[in-house]
Amino acid sequence: MALANDLRKGMAIKYNGNAAIVLEVTHRTPGNLRAFVQCIIRYIGTGKSADIRFSSTEKVELVDVSRSALEFSYSDHEGYHFMDPETFETITLQKDFIGDAKDYLTEGMSVEILYVEGRAVSVELPPSANLKVAESPEGLRGDSSGNVMKPAVLETGKSINVPLFIKEGEIIKVDTRTGEYMGRA
Predict the structure, then answer these.
(1) Domains parsed from the chain with CATH numbers
(2) Rounded Cα distance, 69 and 144, in Å
């Protein structure tokens, strides 16, 4: 048991008898009222989210969480295949489970899989990924006033905006949290 005040993003709790992942935590102290903790959680069993409020001194039951570092191998019609670099065991995760992370996965990329009560619940990507530009139109010389961007399609199929000087075949660094261009790799 822990106090609601100690909750952090990524923790797993038991709420109304169901295990849930904490997505966001906000501590609030309104004027002359008592402090409270506002949380957005996602139930592991159903995948639904809920906005809940705890008093800051309320006790919350924590759930065992484990993380394992895996390497992305490949994807096919069955799903996305990951390998444990220590035991060489492979696990397959479904496309709907991976979600938007598929836009950044490249062969050999190391990711963390979060397990709650022995069940995989989320994929955590590194903060940035190095991806190759597959398609990008040429930038026009006269368009260089200010921070001008052009669309580019990456090797994973994701489309982002990049500066005019980026050409096809270059490897760029992309922020996996926002999906924005960070620089050349």
Answers:
(1) 2-62 (2.30.30.30), 65-124 (2.40.50.140), 128-184 (2.40.50.140)
(2) 43
Sequence length of the chain is 185
pLDDT tens digits for 109-133? 999 988 877 778 778 889 999 999 9
Q: Do residues 35 and 88 lie in contact, with contact meaning Cβ atoms separated by under 8 Å?
A: no
- Residue 142: pLDDT band with limits 50, 70, 90: low
Sheet with 159-163: list strands edge to edge.
159-163, 149-154, 128-135, 171-175, 181-184
Q: In this structure, what DSSP letter does residue 98 have?
A: H
Mean pLDDT score, 143-168: 85
Q: Identify whether the C-beta of residue 40 lies closer than 8 Å to the C-beta of residue 24.
A: yes
What is the CA angle 52-63-94, rounded to 5?
Answer: 90
Q: Report d(CA 18, CA 13) in Å as an integer.
A: 8
Residue 136 makes CB contacts below 8 A (sequence gap 6+) with: 150, 151, 152, 153, 162, 166, 167, 168
Tokens encoding 115:
């397990």
